[in-house]
């Protein structure tokens, strides 16, 4: 008598794992992180920092939003990675705010030059600064991200009506100095030692903030 084969109950009626995944979503792979960063850059450039959502970035990259949290943690970290910033702007804000109000100017220029004077920091910052002055999209990304993570927190400490204008004026001083020292390499700014630059610029920055 021919025996009838009993179906394997461990697999019968069980959908294939690949087909059970959410359509359009895939797990992490070798290129997943890069694809998330590409989608994030496009979103930050097109929509701005505030309007970019992690869900939208995940949808564009074709991954689950949980992977973004796994790789980056949150939107701030995603912005920092997508812009290849050499330092976390939130750490910059914390360092600036950690101390007496009447020494804000000195702390700002000290932290700023500290980033630029490190070999890796200078290389990355040069690339970012060149991109900012040549691309409206990159300029918008930087403007909105830095506003959220540095300008707003520092402005709140000043407690004056025109606080954001004051901090923006400081930013104009710092960007101007960076252009002349590191890109144009205009002497004597380009060859002046860091302590001298700090001594010369700190009072001017402090004046913008508290005068």
TrEMBL record:
Residue ranges occupied by any HTH tetR-type domain in the UniProt entry: 30-90
PROSITE patterns hit by this protein: HTH_TETR_2
Keywords assigned: DNA-binding
Keyword flag Iron: no
DNA-binding region: 53-72
Keyword Transit peptide: no
Region of interest: Disordered: 1-33
SUPFAM superfamilies per the UniProt record, alphabetical: Homeodomain-like, Tetracyclin repressor-like, C-terminal domain
InterPro entries (UniProt xref): Homeodomain-like_sf, HTH-type_TetR-like_transc_reg, HTH_TetR, Tet_transcr_reg_TetR-rel_C_sf, TetR_C_16
Protein known as: TetR family transcriptional regulator
Natural source organism: Kribbella orskensis
């Amino acid at each position: 008598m021919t025996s009838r084969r009993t179906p394997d109950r461990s697999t019968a009626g069980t959908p294939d794992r690949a087909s059970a995944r959410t359509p359009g979503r895939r797990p992490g792979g070798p290129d997943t992180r890069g694809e998330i960063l590409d989608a994030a850059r496009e979103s930050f450039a097109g929509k701005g920092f505030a309007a970019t959502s992690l869900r939208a970035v995940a949808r564009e990259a074709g991954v689950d939003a949980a992977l973004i949290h796994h790789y980056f943690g949150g939107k701030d970290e995603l912005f920092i990675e997508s812009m290849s910033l050499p330092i976390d702007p939130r750490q910059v804000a914390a360092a600036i705010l950690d101390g007496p109000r009447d020494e804000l100017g000195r702390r700002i220029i000290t932290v700023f030059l500290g980033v630029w004077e490190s070999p890796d920091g200078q290389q990355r910052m040069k690339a970012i600064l060149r991109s900012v002055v040549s691309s409206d999209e990159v300029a918008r990304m930087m403007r909105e991200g830095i506003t959220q993570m540095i300008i707003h927190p520092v402005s709140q400490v000043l407690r004056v009506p025109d606080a954001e204008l004051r901090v923006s004026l400081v930013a104009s001083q710092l960007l101007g100095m960076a252009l002349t020292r590191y890109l144009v390499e205009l002497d004597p700014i380009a060859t002046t030692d860091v302590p001298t630059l700090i001594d010369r610029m700190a009072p001017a920055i402090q004046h913008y903030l508290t005068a």
